[in-house]
Design goal:
- With 89 residues, this protein is an all-alpha fold.
- Helices cover 66% and strands 0% of the residues.
- The N and C termini lie far apart (32 Å).
- Helix 2 packs antiparallel against helix 3 (48-61).
- It contains four helices and no strands.
Length: 89
């Protein structure tokens, strides 16, 4: 899977967070999380709607609530530290 330390650290943190969510979250959140994990395993970059469904289920669970699934937009934010270093040089 991951070959460098930063990717392995991310994978370890994601696994820890996922396992913690599974212990305390309602079934709809866990199901949405497992759908995201399955999609990630199958295609690498899953359809963004799978991630949106996970985010929406978490938001419902914590009481943020009335989001519109048809218009709600989110994608994983990726930060490349080397890009920042290039801009600062």
């Amino acid at each position: 899977m991951a070959t460098d330390n930063s990717n392995q650290e991310f994978a370890d943190n994601f696994a820890l967070a996922s396992n913690t969510i599974a212990l305390v979250a309602p079934q709809k959140v866990v199901n949405a999380l497992m759908n995201f994990v399955d999609a990630k395993k199958c295609v690498g970059e899953p359809d963004p709607r799978v991630l949106v469904k996970l985010i929406l289920e978490i938001r419902k669970d914590i009481g943020i609530g009335n989001d519109d699934e048809q218009t709600f937009r989110y994608e994983l934010v990726k930060w490349d530290a080397s890009e920042k270093a290039k801009k600062l040089s």
